[in-house]
Amino acid sequence: MNYPVVYDPNINSRDRYDLSLVSLIVFIAAVFAYTIFCIHGGLFSDEGFHAPQIWVYYSGGTTFAETITVPPTYHYIIGFIVRQIGYYDDNLLKLISLLISLLTIPVFYKLISKYHPQEAGIRTLQLFFLPLMFIYYFLIYTDIWALLLISLNLYFALNKRYALSALIGLAAICLRQDSIIWVGFSFLLICFEKTNQDEMYRIKTIFKNGFVKGAPYIAIFFAFIAFVIYNGGVAIGDKDQHNSGSANFANFYIFLILAWFLYLPLNIKLLPDIISFLRNHWNLALITAGFLLYMGSFTNPHGYNNSMFDYFLHNGMAHYLTQNILVKSISYILAIWMLLSLVVMKLPEQRFKWALLVIPLAVISHPMIEPRYYFPAYLTIHLLRPALSPAVETGTLVCYILLAAYIVYGSVSGHFFL
Predict the structure, then answer these.
(1) Residue 170 pLDDT more than 50?
(2) How far apart are the first and last CA of the chain?
(3) How many Cβ atoms are within 10 Å of 86's Cβ, its own excluded?
(4) How far is the CA of 1 from the CAs of 193, 206, 212, 350, 370, in angstroms?
(5) In 121, 179, 291, 387, which residue has its Cα 20 to 30 A from 379's Cα atom?
(6) Using DSSP, how many helices (H) and how many strands (E) does the chain show?
(7) How confident is the model over 346-373, as pLDDT tens digits?
């Protein structure tokens, strides 16, 4: 079955940003930003853990630091490359990480083109310059590499290359364990492929898809469960701070608030649909009950989120929102507005409604609040959201570029870090 490409008759059908132009813009921006980081030098935040681990592998060692929560896949790959080069420098590590991270650009473009070919270029640029994500292309962090593999996993799942999709999903998990949830998302999409039949046959199709097409995924899930049992949790290092076993709802609330700003034009466009949704008294009652849940569960208990409020922006945001009752109450408007936008948003296919379950699960599974945990969720919204006018899309891109530039400036100058 070929699913329809989502077109908006109000949007110009020709993409003004083809892949070659997108690649040129990304190349210029990447050279400029990388040069800035080279000039200012130094390691930022968790780079202070990742770079020494790469040095261990570069120098022929095998010791794995107890402070690193993810598998050493990223560190070993970069360590192997610099060892072949025969030269070690922090800026070289950043360059290697950047070059592989830039593979996200054609992958984003191909993935978005499946449903929005008329605006794949500008959406790809928006993802690259996403203010919360842009800086990580130039840092020694695992998140963009993981996003690359998650994107490929989803792309091949949607294109019915199930075994290849599962293999890439396994690679994503070997890079960052939290990728398991997004691999699970691809599995759900496979299970609910071609399920527009009568109810009896629909259930049969779901099971057939899951156990036949999704068989490699099932093997991965069992292997991951075995790993968690053997390891005593998901995190490999720093287990006391990352294997609490409790959900952090604050991560979901902050994700929604940040998303409200990132997707403000979308939220405004969907406001009439949201108002119509709220005319149902039961829905309005749920929103009211949600406020009580929000006020009671929006806390900031993690130790790493309760220091350096002026430097780490996410720490300052979490502290301010949870300590001020008035601000917390007002912030609920933004959080619920964004959530309702996701609920009423028209999707390319009905099976993508699973995103409404997967996105919250993916972000609350982290005990510590960090915006970089939201990258796959933002990718999903970018893929699924309806089209906006060319002027709005361009204006959004310009705002993203300006905000991304400001965050780079604030980081290299030492004023703050995300």
Answers:
(1) yes
(2) 43
(3) 7
(4) 9, 15, 17, 14, 39
(5) 291
(6) 21, 0
(7) 999 999 999 999 999 999 999 999 999 9
